[in-house]
């Protein structure tokens, strides 16, 4: 006879569920009070199938993670794509990747779906995924110990999270700190996903860098930012220029954001900065050219938590609510 799995004896109120809902996949983990990810699972989000499918993905992950344990969850922290009203745990707006996501009361639906897996008074905290990412870097990563930090994620798009006096700043319309839509010199010829021309995301994101490369007459066979990076490494001067100017736009926007916010640190994460010195050097040079003297010493640091940051931040927000 096959041995049955032995339940892991974790006392109630010692575990939270952290969830990171992305456009293609959802990651979930059980996290202890010290912020350690004890066990993690991922599943396809099924964003195109609508809110019920996404909530069912979260429920499925929670049940899988708890299957071998007798524990209940003391709380749930969720970071999700889209603009989120964190006070109610409801989606305000989202891209078309998520069918019918705007208006979804994620916190309430997850509470209902998890039912008996939660201790009776367990909080369910929902925030934007980049805000969760920022909280992770602030609690455990490159911004640990800083009173204020602007965390900017530069990948397919440009997202940001802002923490001041140790707390996330959401803003009156839930988009505080979103420098992706800051008007940025050098991006005037490119259209942003929000529909306007000249925003940082239009040139500074991976998609923007590739669009800029094409606008400079770059090789049409180069399909994306990864291709631009490879072409630059092979000596293609147009690719090198596209990276330089895309990175400089980020530095310029950071100088503008720093002027308003004066954060103790700026932390940069995501796939694009992984291009390396060819990206970081022109980004830093542009920041130094535009930032006033008092801001020149602002540390601009790479994130240290990688893909774990949103889960660790989501968990931290749940523990804080308990
Ligand atoms: Zn925009």
Structural features, described:
With 322 residues, the chain is an alpha/beta fold. It has two domains: 16-132 and 308-321, ATPase, nucleotide binding domain (Nucleotidyltransferase, domain 5, 2-Layer Sandwich); 142-303, 2-Layer Sandwich (Nucleotidyltransferase, domain 5). The protein contains nine helices and twelve strands. Strand 8 and strand 9 (158-164) form a beta hairpin. The longest helix is centred in the last third of the chain and has 25 residues, at 237-261. The mean pLDDT is 94. The structure holds zinc ion.
Outline of this structure?
The protein has 322 residues and is an alpha/beta fold. It is built from 9 helices and 12 strands. It is globular, with a radius of gyration of 21 Å.
List keywords for this structure.
single chain; 322 residues; alpha/beta; Nucleotidyltransferase, domain 5; 2 domains; 5-stranded mixed beta sheet; globular; binds zinc ion
Specify the CATH class of the largest domain.
Answer: Alpha Beta
Fold-level CATH name of the largest domain: Nucleotidyltransferase, domain 5
Main beta-sheet strand count, sense and barrel state? 5 strands, mixed
Terminal Cα span: 42 Å
**CATH-scheme architecture of the largest domain:** 2-Layer Sandwich
Structural class estimated from helices and strands: alpha/beta
Rg calculated over all Cα atoms: 21 Å
DSSP strand content: 15-25%
> What small ligands are held by the chains?
zinc ion
Instruction: List low-confidence stretches.
Output: none
Average pLDDT number = 94
Tally of individual domains: 2
Instruction: Identify the CATH homologous superfamily of the largest domain.
Output: ATPase, nucleotide binding domain
Count of individual helical segments: 9
Bin the helical content.
25-40%
Strand order of the largest sheet: 3-2-1-4-7
Order of helices and strands: EEEHEEEHEHEEEHHHHEHEH
Q: How many beta-strand segments?
A: 12
Bulk shape: globular
